[in-house]
């Protein structure tokens, strides 16, 4: 059995290594670093050398201190690594770079319809197909050398094993590259002659292979240490629930992005113009999803913490004085992609606690909006940083009438990635008792005014 599992967890803002004792379902150690972008030609790109040094050094530390039986990987989406044999053909493009936008009119001619891909047209490089199109058009000589297109989790798995593979969770996350109903690549892939560049797809819950001899020598890992094929981060958060929950459930996976997923809900109501899509879960099934950049907006609106919990008087002040935040502050994403963020009756003159109330209510209203588009279970589980914001959860319960639970697992994404090994057993996640819904008499009127203003 894989008892001690190290998880490489690369988010858009930070990267970390988490070591789990799976027999006790507990975290043993965590190492973290910033995920940096280099503003260098030919376009802004991730600092793979820095991440590689962090990962290999960290694996060595964890192996020496605790021992590692297996390694799993989860990363943010919208990222591919173009390989020329065993070398990079091009730097790994930062999906927030707006270069692909200049090619959007040409790209739109070849990309498939939303009905085929369940992947909406997104700005900057958030559609991975748009990134590949941009790279092929602007870096033609280098792109001609490409032998393999690796999704980001599988690139790091390749770095550890020397083996190349693909898997569906990263392939199916607003890439324009996958057709869920066909369970096959979208027509775009064949139009652009990319199919041969994608390595074979493996089941998400599978072992890619053991670490290479070179990695074993550098880190001290046993040459028999298994490496999982890897998984997209939001789908890693969802996996423990898919393995244990049978009732209709929705999950809020928070971080830089706030991802709202409702497994089992129909996909027919998804709105391509409001940042809705279908993720592909670890079992290859489409999951209706809505998103907005909640973590990024929180940083923009609140700055650095820590923040003290607001009191009832702060909530009353914000609701009674019509202090609110309107979308959005993180570019053309989310359910209101063409709205420019604004404050009503703030933020000047607000105390930090009052400001936190307004921002928390805003995030709850955005979440409710997303769930009206993607479907919503009777229970909502909040994971990640938003699980520490009790006012957000109480407001979400009050706004939706659903049971809202705050995950007590601070490493939900990492733990989900640890479950990629089929022989891993675990107790189903303990869903805490739901929070008490916010019942302030002014909440419904406040929400109605917010909605009227966002639709104006």
Structure in words:
The chain has 456 residues and is α+β, with helices and mostly antiparallel strands. 33% of the residues lie in helices and 21% in strands. The longest helix is centred in the C-terminal third of the chain and has 23 residues, at 352-374. The chain is globular. The termini are far apart.
* Total helical elements: 16
Q: Give a quick account of the main beta sheet: strands, pairing sense, barrel closure.
A: 7 strands, mixed
The share of residues in helices is 25-40%
Strand content: 15-25%
Mean pLDDT, to the nearest integer, reads 94
Radius of gyration, whole Å = 22 Å
Q: What is the 3D form? A: globular
What is this structure's SSE topology?
Layout: E1 4-10, E2 14-21, E3 26-34, E4 37-38, E5 45-46, H1 48-65, E6 70-75, E7 80-84, E8 87-88, H2 104-110, H3 114-117, H4 128-138, H5 140-143, E9 148-151, H6 152-161, H7 168-171, E10 178-179, E11 184-185, H8 187-191, E12 207-210, H9 213-219, E13 226-228, E14 231-232, H10 233-242, E15 249-254, E16 258-261, E17 276-280, E18 286-292, H11 294-302, H12 312-320, E19 324-326, E20 342-344, H13 352-374, E21 379-383, H14 390-400, E22 403-406, H15 412-418, H16 443-455
Parallel strand pairs: 1-6, 6-13, 6-14, 15-21, 21-22
Antiparallel strand pairs: 1-2, 2-3, 4-5, 7-8, 7-9, 10-11, 12-13, 15-16, 16-18, 17-18, 19-20
Helix pairs in contact: 10-15, 11-13, 12-13, 13-14
């Amino acid at each position: 059995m894989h008892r001690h599992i190290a998880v490489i967890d690369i988010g858009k803002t930070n990267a970390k290594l988490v070591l789990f004792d799976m027999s006790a379902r507990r975290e043993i150690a965590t190492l973290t670093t910033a995920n940096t972008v280099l503003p260098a030609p030919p376009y802004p790109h991730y600092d793979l050398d820095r991440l590689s040094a962090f990962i290999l050094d960290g694996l060595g530390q964890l192996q020496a201190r605790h021992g590692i039986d297996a390694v799993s990987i989860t990363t943010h989406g919208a990222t591919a690594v173009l390989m020329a044999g065993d070398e990079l053909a091009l730097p790994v493009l930062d999906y927030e770079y707006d270069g692909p936008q200049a090619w959007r009119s040409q790209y739109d001619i070849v990309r498939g319809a939303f009905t085929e891909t369940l992947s909406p047209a997104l700005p900057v490089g958030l559609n991975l197909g748009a990134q590949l199109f941009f790279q092929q058009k602007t870096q033609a000589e280098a792109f001609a050398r490409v032998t393999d297109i690796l999704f980001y989790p599988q690139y790091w798995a390749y770095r550890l094993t020397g083996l190349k593979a693909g898997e569906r969770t990263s392939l199916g996350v607003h890439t324009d590259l996958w057709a869920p109903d066909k369970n096959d690549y979208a027509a775009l892939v064949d139009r652009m002659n990319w199919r041969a560049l994608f390595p074979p797809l493996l089941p998400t819950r599978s072992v890619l292979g053991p670490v290479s001899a070179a990695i074993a020598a550098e880190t001290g890992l046993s040459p028999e240490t298994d490496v999982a094929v890897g998984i997209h981060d939001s789908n890693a958060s969802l996996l423990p629930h898919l393995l244990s929950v049978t009732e209709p459930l929705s999950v809020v996976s928070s971080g830089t992005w706030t991802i709202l997923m409702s497994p089992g809900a129909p996909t027919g109501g998804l709105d391509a113009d409001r940042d809705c899509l279908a993720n592909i879960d670890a079992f290859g099934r489409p999951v209706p999803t809505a998103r907005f950049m909640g973590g990024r907006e929180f940083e923009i609106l609140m700055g650095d913490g820590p923040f003290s919990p607001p009191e009832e008087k702060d909530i009353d002040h914000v609701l009674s004085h019509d202090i609110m935040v309107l979308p959005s502050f993180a570019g053309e994403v989310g359910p209101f992609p063409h709205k420019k963020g604004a404050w009503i009756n703030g933020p000047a003159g607000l105390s930090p606690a009052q400001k936190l109330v307004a921002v928390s209510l805003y995030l709850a209203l955005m979440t409710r909006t997303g769930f009206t588009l993607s479907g919503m279970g009777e229970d909502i589980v909040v994971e990640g940083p938003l699980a520490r914001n009790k006012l957000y959860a109480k407001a979400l319960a009050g706004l939706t009438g659903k049971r809202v639970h705050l995950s007590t697992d601070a490493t939900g994404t990492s733990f989900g990635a640890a479950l990629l090994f089929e022989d891993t057993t675990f107790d189903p996640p303990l869903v805490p008792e739901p929070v008490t819904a916010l019942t302030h008499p002014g909440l419904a009127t406040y929400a109605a005014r917010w909605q009227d203003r966002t639709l104006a």
